């Protein structure tokens, strides 16, 4: 039997994992500046958390769940997204209490699971980085959330981005709009794609989001949600736009942009990439919005019922970085390589490498008892700045030869000096 990873999953291997670490550490750096704190929820949840949080009629719940009964007959699902679990946790641990940050500003980074048809940038296990702000109905929270995402992309060197925003108003506004949309679409329903026909009565807003060409033509003349906002929703959206303007953030308003998850209201946004490498195709790399009311759905207090957040697919961020030709700092370099010649140097090589690491440098050695030439080739490949050479005679004299790989110069240093003050040795040769 040939063993293979499950369909729609990835092994992230050396060479690639360094990129992940770079993206994740950049995210952590940026989030820290905004006073966001990490929450790590379980990888699986009781299924009700997701059906309640995400909504019964969404693709996630109807088609994409990795759910199962566990040995105790509990109905469990692998988490398909981060918001519902986080809100569950917020309410469960009463994080709205006076001793907690208010608004509560959380982020998560980790795998999500959706049973989808795998394609480029669409996996069954994928990774999201996301934020959630709970307990603020201030439109500045929406704008700060958007700024976090934009700041993150800037720090990664991703510049071909476009911010698209819209407002879905309140639930009441959306119910009225929903009916208007059904009234518009119904007479045209036989021209809609099968997916959209099905969604027409379960989740009609999602038809606006269809990628089908004919569907797109049909929704071209659909009524606009923006005409259905009440005064308060309008004022909120106007404030969000003027705060974005005040921050000098460019955006476009697309009244057909809705989100696939039921919980959104008021502000929704997406950040799209039109990186040159995508050849004109546009990809959503980050999506989110406001979800006032979700905390109440989980029986949390009405006083802390406001929420805003986004999620971004890390795989798509990495694809975008590739498409933009962003270079990630090489991560497999070492400072020092130990060349050991002859089996009898095995133990001393181990000690040398360890001393170098204890002094704070990155070090690798040979383990295969190879010839000098092959070991130097490895040192070159790893961009070692310094090579320590130990052979039979050096061992006998308790010294090591030290080669500056930049100038090619060689000196001899006592083992003692390496063991007591390697940083001096290094700095004398390479400079600080
Ligand atoms: P789509 O319309 O592409 O299916 P979605 O509306 O299901 O997206 P969200 O649930 O809002 O997406 O998730 C936020 C982000 O997570 C997406 O913008 C995308 O970057 C990423 N994402 C979602 N599903 C997947 C997946 N199956 N594989 C990889 N990334 C994903
Ligand atoms: Mg989806």
UniProtKB/TrEMBL annotation:
Q: Where, subcellularly, is it found?
A: Cytoplasm
Q: What is a single Pfam family found in this protein's UniProt entry? A: HGTP_anticodon
What's the Enzyme Commission number for this chain? Answer: 6.1.1.21
**Catalytic reaction(s) noted:** tRNA(His) + L-histidine + ATP = L-histidyl-tRNA(His) + AMP + diphosphate + H(+)
GO cellular component terms, alphabetically, are: cytoplasm
Entry keyword set: Aminoacyl-tRNA synthetase, ATP-binding, Cytoplasm, Ligase, Nucleotide-binding, Protein biosynthesis
**Which residues bind L-histidine per the record?**
81-83, 114, 128, 132, 259, 263-264
GO BP term (any one): histidyl-tRNA aminoacylation
Tell me the SUPFAM superfamilies matching this sequence. Answer: Class II aaRS ABD-related (SSF52954), Class II aaRS and biotin synthetases (SSF55681)
Could you tell me which InterPro entries the record lists for this protein?
aa-tRNA-synth_II, aa-tRNA-synth_II/BPL/LPL, Anticodon-bd, Anticodon-bd_dom_sf, His-tRNA-ligase, HisRS-like_core, HisRS/HisZ, HisRS_anticodon
Give the Aminoacyl-transfer RNA synthetases class-II family profile domain ranges.
20-329
Superkingdom assignment: Bacteria
Question: What Gene Ontology molecular function terms does this protein carry?
Answer: ATP binding; catalytic activity, acting on a protein; histidine-tRNA ligase activity; transferase activity
Quaternary structure (record): Homodimer.
- Family named by the database record: Belongs to the class-II aminoacyl-tRNA synthetase family.
Record's NCBIfam families? hisS (TIGR00442)
Q: What is this protein called?
A: Histidine--tRNA ligase
Q: What is the lineage of its organism?
A: Bacteria, Bacillati, Bacillota, Bacilli, Lactobacillales
Its encoding gene is what?
A: hisS
């Amino acid at each position: 039997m040939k063993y293979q990873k499950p369909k729609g999953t990835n092994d992230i291997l050396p060479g690639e994992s360094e990129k992940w670490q770079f993206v994740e550490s950049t995210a952590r750096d940026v989030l820290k500046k905004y006073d966001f704190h990490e929450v790590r929820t379980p990888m699986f949840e009781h299924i009700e958390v997701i059906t309640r949080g995400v909504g019964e009629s969404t693709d996630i719940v109807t088609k994409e769940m990795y759910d199962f009964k566990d040995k105790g007959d509990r109905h469990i699902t692998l988490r398909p997204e981060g918001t519902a679990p986080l809100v569950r946790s917020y309410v469960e641990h009463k994080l709205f209490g006076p001793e907690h940050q208010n608004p509560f500003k959380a982020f998560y980074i980790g795998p999500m699971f959706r049973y989808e048809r795998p394609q480029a940038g669409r996996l069954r296990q994928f990774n999201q980085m996301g934020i959630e702000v709970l307990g603020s109905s201030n439109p500045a929270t929406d704008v700060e959330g958007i700024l976090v995402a934009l700041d993150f992309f800037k720090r990664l060197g991703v510049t071909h981005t476009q911010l698209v925003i819209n407002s879905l108003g309140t639930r009441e506004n959306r119910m009225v709009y929903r009916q208007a949309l059904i009234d518009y679409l119904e007479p045209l329903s036989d021209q809609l794609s099968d997916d959209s026909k099905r969604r027409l009565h379960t989740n009609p807003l999602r038809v606006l989001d269809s990628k089908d060409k004919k569907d797109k033509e049909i929704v071209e003349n659909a009524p606009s949600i923006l005409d259905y906002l009440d005064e308060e929703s309008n004022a909120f959206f106007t404030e969000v736009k003027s705060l974005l303007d005040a921050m000098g953030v460019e955006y476009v308003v697309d009244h057909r942009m809705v989100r696939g998850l039921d919980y959104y209201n008021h502000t929704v946004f997406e950040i799209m990439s039109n990186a040159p490498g995508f050849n004109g195709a546009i990809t959503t790399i980050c999506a989110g919005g406001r979800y006032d009311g979700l905390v109440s759905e989980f029986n949390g207090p009405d006083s802390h019922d406001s929420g805003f957040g986004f999620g971004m697919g890390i795989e798509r961020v990495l694809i975008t970085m590739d498409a933009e030709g962003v270079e990630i700092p090489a991560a497999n370099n070492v400072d020092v390589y130990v060349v050991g010649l002859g089996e009898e140097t095995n133990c001393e090589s181990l000690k040398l490498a360890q001393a170098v690491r204890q002094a704070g440098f990155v070090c690798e050695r040979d383990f295969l008892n190879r010839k000098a030439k092959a070991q130097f080739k490895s040192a070159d490949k790893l961009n070692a700045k310094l090579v320590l050479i130990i052979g039979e005679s050096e061992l006998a004299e308790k010294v090591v030869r030290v080669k500056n790989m930049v100038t090619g110069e060689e000196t001899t240093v006592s083992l003692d000096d390496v063991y007591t003050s390697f940083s001096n040795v290094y700095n004398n040769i390479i400079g600080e």
